Amino acid sequence: MAIQTRNKRSIQFSMAGMSDLVFLLLIFFMLTSTLIAPTIINLNLPESRSESRSRQTVTVYVLGDQRYFVEKESVNADMLYTSIARKLGATPSGSVVIRSNKDAQVQSIVNVIDAVNSINRDEGKKHKVVLATSPKN
Fold it and tell me: Does the predicted TM-score (pTM) go above 0.90?
Protein backbone atom coordinates (compact mmCIF):
# COMPACT_ATOMS: atom_id res chain seq x y z
CA MET A 1 0.00 0.00 0.00
CA ALA A 2 1.45 3.30 -1.11
CA ILE A 3 1.29 6.31 1.16
CA GLN A 4 -0.03 9.45 -0.54
CA THR A 5 0.45 13.00 0.72
CA ARG A 6 -2.59 15.18 1.25
CA ASN A 7 -1.03 18.47 0.19
CA LYS A 8 0.04 18.29 -3.42
CA ARG A 9 2.33 21.05 -4.60
CA SER A 10 1.41 22.84 -7.79
CA ILE A 11 4.17 23.62 -10.22
CA GLN A 12 2.11 26.14 -12.20
CA PHE A 13 2.76 29.89 -11.99
CA SER A 14 -0.11 32.40 -12.01
CA MET A 15 0.45 35.47 -14.21
CA ALA A 16 -2.58 37.39 -12.84
CA GLY A 17 -0.47 39.39 -10.41
CA MET A 18 2.05 40.27 -13.11
CA SER A 19 -0.59 41.67 -15.45
CA ASP A 20 -1.86 43.96 -12.68
CA LEU A 21 1.66 45.21 -12.11
CA VAL A 22 2.19 45.84 -15.84
CA PHE A 23 -1.04 47.86 -16.09
CA LEU A 24 -0.12 49.93 -13.03
CA LEU A 25 3.30 50.71 -14.51
CA LEU A 26 1.70 51.58 -17.86
CA ILE A 27 -0.71 54.02 -16.23
CA PHE A 28 2.08 55.56 -14.16
CA PHE A 29 4.30 56.22 -17.19
CA MET A 30 1.42 57.54 -19.28
CA LEU A 31 0.48 60.06 -16.59
CA THR A 32 4.02 61.22 -15.91
CA SER A 33 4.86 61.57 -19.61
CA THR A 34 1.93 63.97 -20.18
CA LEU A 35 3.10 66.19 -17.32
CA ILE A 36 6.47 66.80 -18.94
CA ALA A 37 6.39 69.67 -21.43
CA PRO A 38 9.76 69.86 -23.15
CA THR A 39 10.91 73.31 -24.19
CA ILE A 40 13.11 73.07 -27.21
CA ILE A 41 13.81 76.73 -27.89
CA ASN A 42 13.70 79.38 -25.20
CA LEU A 43 11.82 82.44 -26.49
CA ASN A 44 10.54 85.69 -25.04
CA LEU A 45 7.11 85.79 -26.66
CA PRO A 46 5.34 89.09 -27.31
CA GLU A 47 2.51 89.86 -24.90
CA SER A 48 -1.18 90.11 -25.71
CA ARG A 49 -4.54 90.21 -23.94
CA SER A 50 -6.44 88.23 -26.59
CA GLU A 51 -7.09 84.56 -25.96
CA SER A 52 -7.65 82.70 -29.20
CA ARG A 53 -6.86 79.01 -29.27
CA SER A 54 -6.49 76.92 -32.40
CA ARG A 55 -5.67 73.34 -33.27
CA GLN A 56 -1.94 73.29 -33.72
CA THR A 57 -0.58 71.41 -36.70
CA VAL A 58 2.94 72.81 -37.20
CA THR A 59 5.02 75.11 -35.02
CA VAL A 60 7.56 77.48 -36.57
CA TYR A 61 10.06 79.14 -34.25
CA VAL A 62 11.56 82.46 -35.38
CA LEU A 63 14.65 83.63 -33.53
CA GLY A 64 15.96 87.18 -33.48
CA ASP A 65 18.92 86.50 -35.76
CA GLN A 66 16.72 85.34 -38.68
CA ARG A 67 16.98 81.65 -37.84
CA TYR A 68 13.95 79.42 -38.31
CA PHE A 69 12.98 76.09 -36.76
CA VAL A 70 10.10 74.08 -38.21
CA GLU A 71 9.24 71.84 -35.26
CA LYS A 72 12.77 70.69 -34.24
CA GLU A 73 14.38 71.08 -37.67
CA SER A 74 16.58 74.10 -38.34
CA VAL A 75 15.87 75.64 -41.77
CA ASN A 76 16.87 78.79 -43.62
CA ALA A 77 14.45 81.26 -45.22
CA ASP A 78 14.72 79.60 -48.64
CA MET A 79 13.67 76.20 -47.27
CA LEU A 80 10.63 77.41 -45.30
CA TYR A 81 8.14 76.53 -48.04
CA THR A 82 9.31 72.96 -48.55
CA SER A 83 9.80 72.22 -44.86
CA ILE A 84 6.37 73.55 -43.80
CA ALA A 85 4.67 71.82 -46.75
CA ARG A 86 6.29 68.51 -45.78
CA LYS A 87 5.23 68.85 -42.13
CA LEU A 88 1.66 69.78 -43.08
CA GLY A 89 1.45 66.76 -45.36
CA ALA A 90 -2.04 65.95 -46.57
CA THR A 91 -3.98 67.87 -43.93
CA PRO A 92 -6.49 70.07 -45.77
CA SER A 93 -6.81 72.60 -42.95
CA GLY A 94 -4.99 73.30 -39.75
CA SER A 95 -2.86 75.99 -38.25
CA VAL A 96 0.76 77.01 -38.38
CA VAL A 97 1.75 78.56 -35.06
CA ILE A 98 4.55 81.12 -35.19
CA ARG A 99 6.50 81.41 -31.97
CA SER A 100 8.68 84.44 -32.37
CA ASN A 101 11.18 86.17 -30.13
CA LYS A 102 10.31 89.74 -29.12
CA ASP A 103 13.37 91.05 -30.92
CA ALA A 104 12.71 89.12 -34.15
CA GLN A 105 12.34 91.24 -37.25
CA VAL A 106 8.89 91.61 -38.72
CA GLN A 107 10.24 90.49 -42.10
CA SER A 108 11.15 87.11 -40.59
CA ILE A 109 7.54 86.61 -39.49
CA VAL A 110 6.25 87.81 -42.86
CA ASN A 111 8.49 85.20 -44.56
CA VAL A 112 6.70 82.44 -42.66
CA ILE A 113 3.26 83.90 -43.46
CA ASP A 114 4.21 84.16 -47.15
CA ALA A 115 5.36 80.53 -47.18
CA VAL A 116 2.05 79.32 -45.68
CA ASN A 117 0.02 81.50 -48.07
CA SER A 118 1.99 80.08 -51.01
CA ILE A 119 1.27 76.53 -49.80
CA ASN A 120 -2.43 77.38 -49.53
CA ARG A 121 -2.47 78.87 -53.03
CA ASP A 122 -0.41 76.13 -54.72
CA GLU A 123 -2.08 73.14 -53.08
CA GLY A 124 -5.62 74.53 -52.63
CA LYS A 125 -5.58 74.20 -48.84
CA LYS A 126 -6.81 76.45 -46.04
CA HIS A 127 -4.15 76.59 -43.35
CA LYS A 128 -4.30 79.40 -40.79
CA VAL A 129 -1.33 81.28 -39.40
CA VAL A 130 -1.36 82.12 -35.69
CA LEU A 131 1.19 84.25 -33.84
CA ALA A 132 1.76 82.85 -30.34
CA THR A 133 1.96 85.34 -27.49
CA SER A 134 2.35 85.16 -23.74
CA PRO A 135 -0.38 86.57 -21.46
CA LYS A 136 -0.06 90.24 -20.60
CA ASN A 137 -0.19 91.08 -16.90
Answer: no
